[in-house]
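Honest question from a wet-lab person: if I give you the sequences of every part of a complex, can you actually get the arrangement of the whole thing, not just the pieces? Trying it with mine:
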Amino acid sequence: GNSVTQMEGPVTLSEEAFLTINCTYTATGYPSLFWYVQYPGEGLQLLLKATKADDKGSNKGFEATYRKETTSFHLEKGSVQVSDSAVYFCALKDNAGNMLTFGGGTRLMVKP
Amino acid sequence: DAGVIQSPRHEVTEMGQEVTLRCKPISGHDYLFWYRQTMMRGLELLIYFNNNVPIDDSGMPEDRFSAKMPNASFSTLKIQPSEPRDSAVYFCASSTASVLYYNEQFFGPGTRLTVL
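Yes, you can. This is the full assembly:
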C-alpha cells in the first residue's frame, strides 16, 4: 500500500534560518504529492503540490521538488519566520482514488 | 464560500454519552472525508463519501462509530457510546473531482472532543 514518511520533529530554528523537512513516499505508479500546513487551532491547508516527476511546487517562499528517482518530496524554505511555526504534513494521492495518505507531521518552531 | 463548516468546535462529554459531530462541505464538492487527529496516532482517515455514498469506511475504529451523509450539504459522525480514548480532534474535509490529476482537500477547523 501507499505510505509517507516524514522526519520526526519538533524542528526548532531561529528566524531567517534555512528549513528542510524531509519526506519520502512509497506508492505504485505516479502519485500526486502535497504539503499541507496546520497552524495552531486550525485545520490543514494546502501549502503546495506537484503532480508529476521533476515538478516543483512553490508557495509563500516554500518549495518542494517531486523526485521520482529518490521517491522524495522534501520541503524547503530559505528564510523562515516566526509565523511559519506550524505542523507540516506531506501527503500523496495515487491515481486510483481520491484518498490522501498523510505522513505523521513535523512540528516546526521558529524562535525570534 | 464560507469553507467547510464543522460544529461544535468543542465538545466535552462523559463516558457513555452519545456524541454527534456535524459537517457542511463546500457547495459543489462531491467528496467528503472524516479524519481523526491524536498525538499518538497522528491523522487518520475514518471514512469518505462520494456523492453522499460511503466509499471506504475501513478506518472507522469500531461499531461505536457511524457516519451518514443524508444530502450533499450535510454529514454527521456519531459515537455511541463514547469512551475516553475517543478524545481527539475530528476534521471534516471536502473536495471535488476534476479533469486535473489532483483534487485538493479543503479542511474544516475541526471539533475538539473530550470524553471524561
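Two things worth pointing out. The first strand of chain B starts at residue 5 and ends at 7. The mean pLDDT of chain B is 92.
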